[in-house]
Write a structure and sequence with these properties.
94 residues, alpha+beta, 3-stranded mixed β-sheet, 15% strand
């Protein structure tokens, strides 16, 4: 990790030092994550003024899901190799 006001760390090094980077974030310091020479992400403290999900729902910016039961994925559809997807969809839709 480089020293300075906003240290950078490579993805590989981040795997080994994630606890340290998270402790820095808790202490109020940001760390820039790089892949090769370019920055790709930033690990920083949470913004206390950032909107919460409850606040977004209350303001109408987010609508809660209508489904109250847990999601259940549909049963898988067997498809033979070499069959075109448009044919499969046509058959499923009737």
């Amino acid at each position: 990790m480089k020293s300075g006001s906003s240290p950078t760390i490579g993805v590989r090094s981040l795997r080994a030092s994630l606890p340290e980077v998270l402790r820095r974030a808790e202490a109020g310091h940001a760390t820039t994550v790089t892949r090769g020479p370019r920055p790709v992400a930033r690990i920083a403290p949470l913004d206390e003024e950032a909107p919460t999900l409850a606040g977004l729902v209350n303001s109408g910016a987010v609508i809660t899901p209508r489904r109250t039961s847990p999601f259940r994925a549909p049963d898988p559809v067997p498809v033979w190799a070499g069959v075109r997807m448009d044919q499969v969809l046509r058959e499923l839709r009737g």
